[in-house]
Amino acid sequence: MFSPVEGSVSFPKLEEEVGAFWKASEIYHKSLAQREGAKPFVFYEGPPTANGMPHPGHCLTRAIKDLFPRYKTMRGYRCERKAGWDTHGLPVEVEVCKQLGIHSKEEIEEYGVEPFIQLCQQSVWRYMQEWERLTERLGFWVDLEKAYVTYHQSYVESVWWSLKNLFDRGLLYQGHKIVWWWAQGGTALSSGEVGQGYREVADPSVFVVCNCVDSNERLVVWTTTPWTLPANQFVAVNPELEYVAVRFDHPKLPLDEQASLIIAKDLVDKLAEKLPKYYKVASKKKAEYKVIQTYRGSDLIGRRYSPPFHWFSHELTDSEEKSAPKVDPTGKLLTGETEHLYWRIVPAQFVTTDSGTGLVHIAPAFGEVDYEVLASERARFSDPQTLELFNPVRPDGTYDERGNWDGVAGQYVKDCDKQLTKHLSNLNKLLMQEQYLHDYPFCWRAEEDPLIQYPRESWFIKTTAFKDAMLENNQQINWLPEHIKDGRMGKFLESNVDWALSRERYWGTPLPIWQCEETGKQEAIGGYDELLAKPGVSGTEVWEAAKKANPELPDDLQVHKPYIDAVTYDSPFAKGARMQRVSEVIDCWYDSGAMPFAQWGYKGQQSGEAKERFESQFPADFISEALDQTRGWFYSQLAISTMLFGEKSDAATPGADASGSPAPSPQSPVPVAQPPHPFRNCIVLGLMLSEWYEDKKDSKKLYLTEEEAKAACGKGFKHAVGKMSKSKRNYREPNEIFDRYGADALRWYLFANQPPWTSIRYSEQSIKDSIPEFLLRLWNCYSFMVIYANIDEWDPAEECGVRNAECGISEEVFAKAESYRPVFDRDEIDRWILSELNRTVALVTERMDAYDNFGACGAINEFVDALSNWYVRRSRDRFWAKDKRAVDKLDAYWTLYECLLTTTKLIAPFVPFLADAMWRNLAGVFGNGGDSQLDQQSPVSSPQPLFPESVHLCDYPEPHSALVDEELSERMALVRLISSLGRRAREMENLKVRQPLAKVEVILADTKHQSWLEEHAGVIADELNVKAVEYSDEPEKYVDHQVLPNFKLLGKKLGKLMPKVKAELNKASGSELLANIRDNGKINLAVEGQEIELLPEEVEVRITAKEGYASANDKGVVVVLATELTPELLAEGVARDLVRAIQDTRKDLGCEFTDRIEVGIVTDDETVKAAVEQFADYIAGETLSISVKLGPIEGVEPIEITLGDAVVKLYIKVQK
C-alpha cells in the first residue's frame, strides 16, 4: 500500500525531510557513481565570493545551474559539479576596510599589509554557512567539499603558469596608458570592472572661451569635465566640418563688441537658443548673431590660443603672474621646421556636431582618446618627448601644488568642478554652463567613488592581438538569448582594448614577474618550486617566521603579499644583482577566468592527474550567470582561453616571421581547442528586480506583500518595482521564502514565469501563487490517487506480483498484472491522457535540449492542468465505483499511476523535492531501493535492476510515439475549448456553473471534427451543465457580428481612407462579411471609387449575443448558451448548490472520504423545498448520504447557510 498522504501538505516541511534523505543516503554521489564511464556533460560553476550574504539573485543563478546538470544526468551523462569560491580582489578588501573603519591605501599600510591580508583570508569564509545553507536548501547539487578556491596555492601557481606563458610570448607587457583609476583605492580597473559600475549622473557642461593669439576671435570650447581644464594642451576640430566666426548681439556676454566666437556652423543655432535662457533674457527666445567669417576645419589647424588656466604656462615660463605666458615653447618637427608645442588647434576625426560646439578640449592625461591625440602630435616631432604630458593630479585624485594658482591644491578633483567654473566666470572665460545627463563609471565595489581616467604605468595583456580570434570563438558559442552574441558581447569584443591586468593593491594573486634591480630586465616565474630552484634564493624565512608565530596560518598565504615580496634571487642579467618581484597583484577577474584549468592546478604538464582532469573537463558544455558577467566572467574566460588554447594562441610568440609562422614557444605545449571554448552554451540571466509596497505618506515604510501594506496603511499605499537594495530591505531573504513557501515554489516561479534572460521580478505574491497554480494542483492529483488506491486496496506491486523482486518499473513489468490492459484497449480518455503525457515528454525533452526551461515548464504546466482539470475530474466516477475490480476502475488506476510516475521523472530537475517525495511513495510499493541497485560494472545505458531509491537516480522518460494520437489530441482540445468558452460565457452573464441551462449551440468554422463532437455531446453537456448540445451553421440566429478594420495592420495601407472603410464595414451585414471571408478568403469593398480588398487578418470580428443568449468565441469556435431559466432548471440549480454546501460541511466536520452521513434540511423557501423533494436521490449520491430529507435531525446542531435569498439550516449526522 502507499504511505498515507496528508490532506494539507506543508511543502517546506516535506523539503526538509527529502533534503535529509538525500544527505543521509548520499544521493548526489550515487547519481555520479551510476554514470561512471558515461559521456561527460561539463559544467563550470561561476565562483561567488562568500564574504557577502547571499541574496535572491543568487537563487536564480544557482537554480538554473542546478536545473540543466540534473536534467543531463538523468539523460545519461556524467556531470561533475565542482563548486568554486572567488576569494581575491577588491570585493574582499573593501569588506575588510569597512570592518576596520578605513578606506584609503595609506590607512591600510598604516594598519599593516600582513595583518590586513590575513584578515582578508579569514573574511572570505565569513558567510560560508549561509552560502552552504542556501545551496543545500535550494536543492543545488554541487560538490562543496572539493571546491576550488582562488587563493589556494595550487590555483595561484596555475595562474602564474598562464601569465608566464603570456609573458614569454610578449603578450604581458608594462606600459604607460590612460586607465580608469579608482583614486580612493589607488589602483587601475579593467574595462570589464568599469563596465559594471556605470550609472546616470548629472555633470556640469561648460562652454569655455579661449582667446586666439593672432586675432580678436575666441574659440568656444566644450567639456563635461571642468576639473581637467587646468591640464588642457590642445583644442581639436574636425578638418572636414564647416566652422563660422559669429558675433552675437547679446549685452550680457563676457565679450567686447568686436570679439567673434568660432563655433561649428551646425551648432550655432543650438547655442543661440540656449544663451537667452542661461542669461535670463525673457524677451528673446533666440540670441541674434551675425556670421563674420566661414572656415573649413582644416583652415583652423595650427592656430594658437590662450589656455583656460595657466598652471602649466606659468610652470614653463617661471612666471609669478596670472596673465598669459610671455614664452610659448616650441620644438623641432621631423620636417626641420619649428612648431609651438602646446595650446594650438589640432585635427581629430572623432569631433562631431552631435553636441557641444565642434571644438573639443584635449587633456591627454585624463582621456584615452585625448592621449592618442598627444601621441599623434608627438610623432610629428624629431624628439617626441619634447611634448610633455600635463598632469596636475596626484594618484589619490587630489590636485598637486600647481592647484595653488586657483586655490584647489590638495582637493579631490571631482569636487572642484564648481570652484573652477566660478574662476572661469570671474576671468570672463565662461560663456555658459548647463547640466549634462550621461552614464559615468563608479567603482564597482565602492559605489560612491567615481572613477577618473588617469595616466599610469601598468601591466597589460595584449588582448587586442586576439580580437579576431575572440570574435570567431564568440560566434561559435550558443548564447541564450542569441542577441548577446553580436550585441553586448560582440560589441564589447569589437571595441576590445588591452587588458589592464595589474592592481596596486594587496589581497590578490601576486604578479609573478621578478625584475633585476640593476638592469631593469624581467622574467616570469611559473610556480613556487620554480622560484625556490633559482640560484641564491632568499627571503623564505619571512614566511617561516610568520608561520612559527601563528601556526594556524594556511600555507597558501606563502605565495601572497607580503611574504612572496620578500623572496629574491640572483639576477641572471647582472652579476651580483638581485631579482625582486614587482609590487602589483592582478585583476581578480583573471583569477575567475582561469578556472577552467586552474581549478585542477594545471600548469602545462605533459602527463598526470591535473592534465587528465583538465582535458576531460574542457571545454564546458554549459555555464550561466547574470547579464553583468558579460564583461566579467564570460569575457575573462573567453579571452584567456583564446590566448592560451586557441588555434592562434601562439600567433604573438616573439620571433614570428613575416608570414606569421611562430617561432618555437619557450613554454610547454598546451592543448589546442577548436571553437567554441572554454564554454559551448551560456544562458545569460536577466537582472532580478524587487517588488514592494510603500506608504504614500512615508516612502521609507516598506511592505513586502499587498496584505501587509493593507493591514498597515489601508488604501494609503502604492506598488513599487525596482532594484534590490540592502539598505532599503525591499526584498524577503531567501531563507524566509524557503520557510514560508518552500524552495520548489521559488524554483518553479523562476523557471516557469518568463525566459531566464528577461528581467525577473522577485515577487513574493507570485511565488506564493505558483503553489496552487502548479505544485498543489499536481499534489492534489497525487493525493487523490493515493487516498482512493488505499481505500480500494489497489497496490501496483501486488497487482504485478513482483514486490521486492529484481525488476525495473516499466510497462513490461506492469503487463504482468492481470488487471493491466494494453493502452489501446482502454477508455478513450485514458488513451488521450497517455497520448498527452508522451507528447509532453517529447516536447519537454526537445526544449530542455535547447536550454529552454521556460518552454519546457509551459508544456509541463499544460499537461498537469489537463491531468487535474480534465482527466482526474472527468474520471472521478470511475474511481468512486463500488466494484473495486471493475475493469474501467482498474484502467483508471493504472493510467493515473503511469501518468504520475512519469511526471515525477519529468519534473525532477525542476522541482526536485516534490518529485522525490512523490516518487518514493509511488515507486516505493515495489520494495526498498538502495545501494544494491547500483551495478558499478554495468554500462550506464543498461536498465537499473531495482527501482531507484530516488527519482534523481532514474533515467529521464523517453516518449513512446506509438501512444501519441494527434487526432485524438486535436479532438479533445476542441472539447476542452468549447467547455472553456461556455464557462466564459456563463461568467459574462453571471450564471454560476451549478445552474443548469436548457442548451448550448456550437458554431464551428472548421467542421472536420463535428461528427466526433456530436458523439461526445454528453461530455460537453456535463461540463457546461446544459440539457442539450446542438450545432449550427447559422450564427446570425444567436449572435450579431461586427467586423472592424485592424487599425494596426491597415494604417499604412489605407491612410486617409480608414474612417470611410470603417463606415462601410459598419453598414454591411457582419454575417455576410464573414461569409465572404469563409467562401472567398477576403472582403471586397468599394470606397470612393476604389476597390479595397481586406484579408482575414486585416479585420477584427466582435460577437455580441442576442437577447436570451450568452456567447464567447475563440480559435474559430463560437459557443452560445440559452440563458432562459425555467422553474425546473432553477430547482436543479438549488440542488447542486445544496450538494456543494453539504460537501463543504463534510470537510469542516473532518469527515473521512468513506464516511456516510444523514442530512436534514430546514427552510421556509419553497424553491429549496421543491429541489430537495425532486432531487433527494441525486443529492444523496453526490454526498455519500444515507438519507436526505426535509426536517431537523434530533441531537444535531444545525449549520445555517444562505442559498441566494433563501436561509437554510443543514443538519448533518455522521454514521459510525
UniProtKB/TrEMBL annotation:
Residues 651-662 have a biased composition (Low complexity). GO terms for molecular function: ligase activity. Its EC number is 6.1.1.5. Residues 651-673 are annotated as: Disordered. Keywords: Aminoacyl-tRNA synthetase, ATP-binding, Ligase, Nucleotide-binding, Protein biosynthesis. It catalyses: tRNA(Ile) + L-isoleucine + ATP = L-isoleucyl-tRNA(Ile) + AMP + diphosphate. InterPro entries: aa-tRNA-synth_Ia (IPR002300), Anticodon_Ile_ABEc (IPR033709), Ile-tRNA-ligase (IPR002301), Ile-tRNA-ligase_type2 (IPR023586), M/V/L/I-tRNA-synth_anticd-bd (IPR013155), Rossmann-like_a/b/a_fold (IPR014729), tRNAsynth_Ia_anticodon-bd (IPR009080), Val/Leu/Ile-tRNA-synth_edit (IPR009008). Residues 830-1000 form the Methionyl/Valyl/Leucyl/Isoleucyl-tRNA synthetase anticodon-binding domain. Residues 663-673 have a biased composition (Pro residues). It is an enzyme of class 6 (ligase). Residues 20-700, 723-754 form the Aminoacyl-tRNA synthetase class Ia domain. CDD domains: Anticodon_Ia_Ile_ABEc (cd07961). This is isoleucine--tRNA ligase.
